[in-house]
């Protein structure tokens, strides 16, 4: 199995010395790189599917994997307030969205 991982943001290829990709640092983040050279069935999920930034009355939901992007497309309305691929959510609605994400087996950090 390859120890090469690619940053999904900039496309730089890096080597993972522990073989999981959790030690790959690029674009200011650790552990978000995706394994290079695998088949779809061999997908290795490294890092959380979503990042959440608490802004007080607004919570920013940031999808960081293809699974997360697909989940957003399937479960959130098309007119949701977006900032790029991120979604701004009123705090009162976030609990139900978080529960849905976790129920569907995705990870949140």
Describe the protein's topology:
Blueprint lengths: L3 E3 L6 E3 L9 E2 L2 E2 L3 E2 L14 E5 L3 E6 L2 H10 L6 E2 L2 E5 H13 L6
Antiparallel strand pairs: 1-2, 1-5, 3-4, 6-7, 7-9, 8-9
Task: Describe what is shown at a glance.
The chain has 109 residues and is an alpha+beta fold.
Characterization of this structure:
- The structure is a single chain.
- This protein is α+β, with helices and mostly antiparallel strands.
- The protein folds into 2 domains: 4-42, no CATH class; 50-103, no CATH class.
- It is 21% helix and 28% strand.
- The protein has helices at residues 66-75, 91-103, and strands at residues 4-6, 13-15, 25-26, 29-30, 34-35, 50-54, 58-63, 82-83, 86-90.
- The strands form 3 sheets. A 4-stranded antiparallel β-sheet has the order 6-7-9-8. Strands 2-1-5 form a 3-stranded antiparallel β-sheet, with no helix packed on it. It has a two-stranded antiparallel sheet with strand order 3-4.
- A hairpin with a 6-residue loop joins β1 (4-6) and β2 (13-15).
- The mean pLDDT is 80.
* Backbone shape: elongated
Poorly predicted runs of 5 or more residues: none
Radius of gyration: 15 Å
Structural classification: alpha+beta
Count of distinct structural domains:
2
Count of DSSP-assigned helices: 2
Average pLDDT score:
80
Secondary-structure element pattern, one letter each: EEEEEEEHEEH
Strand order of the largest sheet: 6-7-9-8
Largest sheet: 4 strands, antiparallel
> Approximately how much beta-strand content do the residues carry?
25-35%
**Helix content bin:** 10-25%
The tally of beta strands, per DSSP, is 9
Termini gap: 27 Å
């Amino acid at each position: 199995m390859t120890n090469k991982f690619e940053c999904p943001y900039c496309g730089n290829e890096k080597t993972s010395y522990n073989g999981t990709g959790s030690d790959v640092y690029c674009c200011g983040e650790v552990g978000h790189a995706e394994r290079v050279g695998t088949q779809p069935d061999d997908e290795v999920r490294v890092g959380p599917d979503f990042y959440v930034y608490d802004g007080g009355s607004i919570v920013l939901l940031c999808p960081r994997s293809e699974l997360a992007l697909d989940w957003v497309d399937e479960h959130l309305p098309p007119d949701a307030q977006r900032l790029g691929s991120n979604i701004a959510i009123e705090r009162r609605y976030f609990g139900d969205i978080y529960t849905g994400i976790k129920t569907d087996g995705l990870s949140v950090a």
